[in-house]
């Protein structure tokens, strides 16, 4: 039998809309409503549920009558079950906390501003993610701690030297002893050099002297895992002859081939002067309408600076193997031996117009060729320079000139990069570190390669066998670069280099005949020009002034007016052996 649903009496209001106002009508209406129907109030912001559900059944009702749904008026009435939702959370979603969590109202209010401060920042009850405690995290923490300690050490060191503009100013003296009778003519700050620019036409080769051996390509495949021991070439002679002692330049000067004469080492020093930190000096001689740029015997220009532009200070004691002077001698020794070891020593050589002008007959001479090149500075002024190349290589059936130089690692703790670990996988980082610590030396090598018109410049990475052994070394790698591409990489402007040379030449051409010296200030980025007596530097053979009883007389000259057969290799071997 189907149950009958009675709606009940609906009151009629003849006076208007809505329920009647009389209390009696309200009471009669309340009495006529169905009994035991639960009252569920709601508002417009709430979601409505079901009013009645006749399809519900309660399986557990027969087994456990106490679990059957009941109303507020009495339990066990079957007619109440379609309308009683007091125990059913699905009927009214707002009563279900799970559904309520997904229900959101549209709130146009701006979000509350955060209350900044320690109390708000540190007392938040935010769920903390579990921290990783694996080996990678611990390793990173250790590396960060080491880096922090290194930075603290550098910070404390810089604070102790904060009154010094550059560390080298307090460590190194002037390369030449400034005498009181010298007259200072001019003082040029390096800031004026950065704005100079001068374009020169392509030079011409006047003469090429010497012999060159071929480069051994097997050295390009050297890695730190298959390093090679650096050999010593004590029987080969290396010559560092200044401009006025060069018989070829004297001959060219007598033939009026040019008005300005120099060597590639001297020109590169001038071109890269703004990058220099250590003190250096160049002797300038004005003879008639000609200008000669010379270096003193035993000048600092014969050696190679190490860590010149680094912020990490080197030991001040001169007899320390890691002092600036000791490293310079060691670098020159390494470069000479490296330039001869990477050659194919099978007797096959490339000969040029003339033989080596500084060697005696029968001497074993290092592989080197001197290119005497002439540049046109203006219509009445030409410059001749002696440029060096160390090797040749055949590329596409064409002979290409090479310059050979070596960077040396003495102690990884000074540079912060261990070549044996980083050179093979992070070669760019190693080169970037060397560009930071040896910016002047690399710029001078690049300038010399450009002056010599070398097709390729080879850079070797040479390291000590042990950080405390400065006499035995190994080759860890060799890399080749095109000089002009490498110059662009290190921000070396060719026009600016020639602008510096042209400005110095124009300044010296205005001087009277005599001898002058151009000195780099050891503590300030500037150079000074002094007028010196004509016999100055004739009794000096050391790079720094010493007491008279310790001064060494210069080597005697041979009959032709050139230097005797004294090589820098012999001098450096004696100095290194004395230090050991």
UniProtKB/TrEMBL annotation:
Location(s), subcellular: Cytoplasm
Keywords, comma-separated and alphabetical: Cytoplasm, Initiation factor, Protein biosynthesis, RNA-binding
InterPro entries, alphabetized: eIF3d
A Pfam family of this chain: eIF-3_zeta
Residue ranges, annotated region (Disordered): 56-152, 544-580
Principal subcellular localization: cytoplasm
Biased composition (Low complexity): 56-69
Composition bias type Basic and acidic residues, residue spans: 131-152
Comp. bias regions, Acidic residues: 544-561, 570-580
Region (RNA gate): 300-314
Record remark: domains: The RNA gate region regulates mRNA cap recognition to prevent promiscuous mRNA-binding before assembly of eif3d into the full eukaryotic translation initiation factor 3 (eIF-3) complex.
Physiological role: mRNA cap-binding component of the eukaryotic translation initiation factor 3 (eIF-3) complex, which is involved in protein synthesis of a specialized repertoire of mRNAs and, together with other initiation factors, stimulates binding of mRNA and methionyl-tRNAi to the 40S ribosome. The eIF-3 complex specifically targets and initiates translation of a subset of mRNAs involved in cell proliferation. In the eIF-3 complex, eif3d specifically recognizes and binds the 7-methylguanosine cap of a subset of mRNAs.
Family: Belongs to the eIF-3 subunit D family.
Subunit structure of this chain's protein: Component of the eukaryotic translation initiation factor 3 (eIF-3) complex.
Protein name per UniProt: Eukaryotic translation initiation factor 3 subunit D
């Amino acid at each position: 039998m189907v149950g009958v649903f009675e709606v009940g009496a609906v009151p009629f209001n003849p006076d208007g809309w809505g329920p009647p106002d009389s209390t009696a009508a309200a009471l009669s209406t309340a009495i006529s409503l169905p009994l035991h129907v639960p009252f569920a109030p709601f508002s417009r912001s709430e979601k409505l549920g079901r009013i009645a559900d006749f399809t519900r059944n309660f399986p557990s009702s027969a087994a456990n009558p106490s679990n059957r749904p009941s109303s507020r008026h009495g339990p066990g009435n079957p007619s109440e079950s379609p309308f009683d939702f007091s125990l059913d959370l699905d009927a009214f979603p707002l009563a279900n906390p799970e559904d309520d969590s997904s229900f959101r109202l549209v709130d146009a209010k701006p979000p509350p501003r955060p209350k900044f401060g320690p109390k708000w920042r540190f007392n938040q009850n935010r769920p903390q993610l579990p921290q990783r405690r694996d080996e990678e995290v611990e390793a990173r923490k250790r590396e960060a701690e080491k880096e922090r300690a290194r930075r603290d050490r550098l910070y404390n060191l810089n604070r102790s030297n904060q009154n010094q503009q550059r560390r080298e100013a307090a460590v190194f003296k002037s390369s030449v002893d400034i005498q009181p009778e010298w007259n200072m003519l001019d003082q040029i700050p390096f800031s004026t050099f950065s704005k100079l620019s001068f374009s020169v036409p392509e030079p011409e080769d006047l003469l090429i002297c010497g012999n060159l051996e071929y480069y051994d390509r097997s050295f390009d495949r050297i890695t730190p895992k298959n390093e090679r021991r650096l050999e010593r070439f004590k029987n080969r002679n290396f010559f560092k002859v200044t401009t006025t002692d060069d018989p070829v330049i004297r001959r060219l000067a007598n033939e009026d081939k040019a008005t300005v004469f120099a060597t590639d080492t001297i020109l590169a020093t001038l071109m890269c002067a703004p990058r220099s930190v250590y003190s250096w000096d160049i002797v300038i001689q004005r003879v008639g309408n000609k200008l000669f740029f010379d270096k003193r015997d035993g000048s600092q220009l014969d050696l190679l600076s190490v860590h010149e532009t680094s912020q990490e200070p080197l030991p001040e004691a001169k007899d320390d193997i890691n002092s600036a002077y000791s490293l310079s001698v060691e670098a020159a020794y390494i470069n000479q031996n490296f330039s001869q070891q990477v050659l194919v020593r099978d007797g096959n050589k490339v000969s040029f117009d003339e033989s080596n002008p500084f060697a005696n007959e029968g001497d074993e001479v290092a592989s080197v060729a001197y290119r005497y090149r002439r540049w046109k500075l203006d219509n009445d002024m030409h410059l001749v320079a002696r440029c060096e190349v160390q090797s040749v290589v055949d590329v596409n059936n064409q002979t290409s000139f090479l310059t050979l130089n070596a960077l040396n690692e003495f102690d990884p703790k000074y540079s912060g990069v261990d070549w044996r670990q980083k050179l093979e996988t992070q070669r760019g980082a190693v080169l970037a570190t060397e560009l930071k610590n040896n910016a002047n030396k690399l710029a001078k090598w690049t300038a010399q390669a450009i002056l010599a018109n070398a097709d390729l410049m080879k850079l070797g990475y040479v390291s000590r066998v042990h950080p405390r052994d400065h006499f035995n070394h190994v080759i860890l790698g060799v890399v080749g670069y095109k000089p002009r591409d490498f110059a662009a990489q290190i921000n070396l402007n060719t026009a600016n280099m020639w602008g510096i040379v042209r400005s110095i030449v124009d300044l010296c051409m205005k001087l009277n005949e005599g001898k002058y010296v151009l000195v780099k200030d050891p503590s300030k980025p500037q150079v000074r020009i002094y007028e010196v007596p004509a016999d100055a530097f004739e009794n000096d053979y050391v790079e720094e002034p010493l007491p008279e009883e310790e001064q060494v007389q210069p080597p005697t000259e041979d009959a032709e007016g050139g230097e005797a057969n004294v090589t820098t290799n012999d001098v450096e071997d004696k100095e290194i052996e004395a230090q050991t």
